[in-house]
Specification:
- The chain has 397 residues and is mainly α.
- Helices cover 77% and strands 0% of the residues.
- The chain has 16 helices and no strands.
């Protein structure tokens, strides 16, 4: 990252565009972030981007939103971090509430074709991210082997903990195999706060995790805060993994009917932005005495809060160890594992769910070429894939 810092407004404007156009889920978001913030704007270096991504992959919480929060923090301080979160999240939170009411009309025909086009966008964007990152992060046999191991492990294992284990195994393999890795810390993360504040943030996370169940009782808004904070604190592996936890919390408890829950889940896959914005939808329909808007805001804040507290607490520790030679090798292996994680996700669920015909494959390949060969923006790829999917539907393919 350059020494020149940006403004809060710059961060807000940039992430607002991402929040309105980043279709495809958390893995695709990483591709959008890399294209917009690293390649187009040079807000940070490849080294810094992959360091932040590795930290976010390792911690519980919504990895893509944590990555955006951390980039906003580095770019424009705490105001930038909050601006990145609000700009990236609020469009999806607001769209989700409206979109959920329209979901029955979009369950077939033209609506389904448009949603399918968004899946093809994810194929192109993630493939571009995997290609670009693999060139820089897997330049030798050892790191390619780590990436291939990560791909194989994740395609064979379905546990929510598998991604965390792969990241940890990549770090260990890096210490053993990547003896000649070029230092990944030539552009260290520049933080504007101390280890003492990081410790305070970690303490706050612990107090909320342990304390909210004690004070919630029969208080509706406190119960909502507890439910969504626990869900956000216990999720490894991204937005989709939080859904079983939320279903157990809000459906089993009788707060939300299974039909309404599934309707919101379907809508959350058809909009840009983070999957965790699903919390805003649930908050508006949970039958609590307080204002639905207040409950939605509470649910949204508390599902994101644990991940943000953890990543900001972890950054100073990472900065302290990043210059250690063993840590440099561990980072090299860990980054190679991250490439494997993205590649595995590119195949399953992105490719398997999106490519259902030769026509789909052709649309996605053209979208990929738009990014890599013709250097078009992701928004143009969104327009192309959705339009082509609608034409395919009209022609009966």
């Amino acid at each position: 990252m350059s020494d020149q810092q940006g403004s809060i407004f710059e961060v807000f404007k940039t992430f607002l565009k991402l929040g309105l156009t980043s279709f495809g889920g958390p893995v695709a978001h990483i591709g959008y972030f890399r294209k917009a913030l690293l390649e187009q704007r040079q807000w940070l270096t490849e080294s810094q981007f992959t360091q932040l991504l590795a930290i976010c992959q390792f911690l519980p919480g919504p990895a893509s939103s944590q990555l955006g929060f951390a980039i906003g923090l580095l770019r424009a301080g705490w105001g930038g971090a909050i601006a990145a979160f609000l700009a990236f999240t609020l469009p999806s939170a607001l769209l989700l509430i409206v979109f959920a009411s329209l979901l029955p009309a979009l369950s077939g025909g033209i609506g389904a074709a448009a949603i399918h086009g968004l899946k093809l966008v994810a194929c192109a964007v993630v493939a571009d991210a995997v290609l670009g990152m693999s060139k820089k992060l897997c330049p030798d046999f050892q790191r390619r082997a780590i990436a291939l191991f990560a791909i194989g492990a994740l395609l064979l294992l379905s546990s929510a903990w598998s991604q965390l284990l792969v990241v940890a195994a990549g770090a260990v393999a890096g210490m053993v195999l990547c003896r000649e890795a070029v230092s990944n810390t030539e552009a260290p993360l520049q933080l504007g706060y101390s280890k003492s504040l990081a410790l305070v943030l970690l303490t706050l996370f612990t107090l909320l995790l342990l304390g909210l169940p004690m004070i919630s009782g029969d208080n509706g808004i406190a119960n909502v805060a507890r439910t969504f904070f626990q869900a956000g604190a216990l999720v490894f592996g991204g937005g989709h993994v939080v859904l079983p936890l939320l279903e157990q919390s809000v459906v089993t408890s009788g707060w939300v009917s299974p039909e309404h829950f599934l309707a919101g889940y379907g809508a959350s896959q058809a909009i840009p932005g983070p999957m965790f914005a699903f919390a805003a939808y649930l908050g508006t329909i949970i039958p609590v005495d307080q204002s639905p808007l207040l409950i939605a805001a509470t649910a949204l804040l508390f599902i994101f809060l644990p991940g943000f507290l953890l990543v900001t607490a972890a950054l100073p520790l990472w900065q302290a160890i990043a210059h250690n030679p063993k840590a440099v090798n561990a980072i090299a292996g860990l980054n190679a594992a991250v490439v494997g994680i993205l590649a595995a996700a590119l195949y399953d669920p992105i490719f398997t769910a999106g490519i259902t015909s030769i026509a789909d494959l052709l649309i996605a390949v053209i979208g990929f070429a738009m990014l890599t060969v013709w250097k078009r923006s992701p928004l143009m790829v969104v327009l192309w894939c959705v339009a082509a999917s609608l034409v395919k539907f009209k022609l009966g393919y």
